[in-house]
Amino acid sequence: MTDDPALHTLTLRHRIPDDWAADPWAEVRPLIDGVDVLKEVHPDGMAPSCRYWTGPAGTWPLAAAEEPRRIMITEPTCTAGCCGALYVTVRREGGLVVWDSWENTGGSGAVPPPYRFDAARYEAELARAAADRDWEERVDTVARLLGRILDDSGWFARWDCVLTNVSPRREEPGVPEELTNPEGVDVDFHHDRGPGNPPDVYRYELLTTHDGSPEQEAHRLAAPILAADPRGTAWKPER
Q: DSSP states of 9-26 as a string?
């Protein structure tokens, strides 16, 4: 590793968004030399969600390879087409990782300068962040464990269904209890009705109780789902 002062240091921090309804999972926020330089040029942008950091290392949002990758590093809570997004090209050059060719499609058009990182330190920080669970609130842990239980069960496939989402549901701060959704976990899945027919979409809106450990609560929430045809017990939103 080098201590070249021309190199920068990447630190990744999990942060639960203020507008968590846009994505209930924490964003993985990149800081460069301890500064949130992305917020300076794209203040309303959210970094990629931690749910994109669960696969192989090469698929992580900030993974670097010799082939340059143009990535959306922050996006608004609406859509990139609506309010613009911030893009950067990431590539590995020998022992370095380079961020450059920035593009800001938002209102200001301002972009950060190019950055160069020591590749070994960079990759170690990506691995640390991907494994980090310290940021989780209890509802995040329950949702993550429940998703793993349902994935591993193969239960939805047995009924020709596809599990599409398991996510935490938080109470909205500052909103009266009677007007906000109670804390829990949402489970979404669909059933393919064949060519030419839109799939049937289903949802479980599960309540957390804080009884027992997160592992025990995840298994408690899974039990009724895995006991019968899920299409007969879940809520089916209107089209």
A: -EEEEEE--TTTTS-SSP
The Cα 127–Cα 146 span in angstroms is: 23
**pLDDT for 52-92, tens place per residue?**
999 999 999 999 999 999 999 998 888 777 888 999 999 99
pLDDT at residue 229, rounded to an integer: 95
Going by C-alpha positions, the residue among 163, 219, 160 that lies closest to residue 193 is 160
Residue located via tokens 């997004």: 85
Cβ atoms within 10 A of the Cβ of 192, count? 12
First to last CA, the chain: 56
Structure tokens at 207: 């309540």
Tokens of 13: 């921090």
What's the pTM? 0.85
Strand order in the sheet with 86-93: 69-74, 86-93, 96-104, 115-118
Taking alpha carbons only, the member of 45, 62, 134, 72 closest to residue 97 is 62
SS3 43: coil
Task: Check if the beta carbon of residue 83 is closer than 8 Å to that of residue 105.
Answer: no
Q: Where are the beta strands (DSSP E) in the chain?
A: 10-15, 27-32, 69-74, 86-93, 96-104, 115-118, 161-169, 184-191, 200-207
By the 10 Å C-beta count (0-12 exposed, 13-18 middle, 19+ buried), 56 is classed as exposed
Question: How many CB atoms sit inside 10 A of residue 208's CB?
Answer: 21
Q: Name the β-bridge partners of 92.
A: 97
Return d(Cα 53, Cα 31) in angstroms, integer: 17
